[in-house]
User: Which sequence fits this backbone?
């Protein structure tokens, strides 16, 4: 609560210092490792194998610590959201539907999750214009609220193939030959941090 009650200038300063001090600390660690191993004394020696390539002083160590921290952070989230590797077209409640599954494996679940799907494929207009990446929305329940998810267990997401669907006039054989991609976008908040 002390940080929340601070003036915005001090909150911003604490925020910036948290990153800068962390990067400086790890930059010093990388520099200390290179110094102790003797990598800094053998910069021009091509026969020498350094602990980490291209670390030739404190500035490069500092930049390496920034680059290492910023590339490692967000990758963990992708490991916890799981999408099925295959989508199926099948009957559900006497209607033809395109279905796939999505699940959240985290201990702290995503809240207020919503899902969208887009069909991306090349298109030729009636005027002869070629659009290489035409995007069409696939309805996954926006009208009924089924696009709002409660991800406590894996869910099956369904797109009804009706006269509004881009798959309405597509036969099974054409579907197997067509070149297209379906991009699924899942948005939400992490329960623990909001």
Assistant:
């Amino acid at each position: 609560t002390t940080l929340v009650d601070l003036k915005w200038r001090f909150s911003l300063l604490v925020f910036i210092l948290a990153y800068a001090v962390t990067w400086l600390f790890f930059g010093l660690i990388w520099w200390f490792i290179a110094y102790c191993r003797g990598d800094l004394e053998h910069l021009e020696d091509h026969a020498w194998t350094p602990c980490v390539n291209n670390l030739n002083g404190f500035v490069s160590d500092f930049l390496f610590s920034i680059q290492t921290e910023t590339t490692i952070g967000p990758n963990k989230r992708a490991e916890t959201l799981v999408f099925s590797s295959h989508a199926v077209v099948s009957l559900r409640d006497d209607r033809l539907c395109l279905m796939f599954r999505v699940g959240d494996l985290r201990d702290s679940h995503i809240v207020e999750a919503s899902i969208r799907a887009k069909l991306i494929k090349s298109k030729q207009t009636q005027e002869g214009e070629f659009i290489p990446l035409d995007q069409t929305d696939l309805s996954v329940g926006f009208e009924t609220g089924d696009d709002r998810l409660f991800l406590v267990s894996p869910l099956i997401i369904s797109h009804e193939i009706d006269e509004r669907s881009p798959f309405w006039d597509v036969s099974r054989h054409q579907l197997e030959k067509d070149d297209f991609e379906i991009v699924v976008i899942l948005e939400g908040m992490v329960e623990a941090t909001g």
In short: The radius of gyration is 26 Å. The chain has two domains: 8-70, 81-190. The chain has a mean pLDDT of 83.
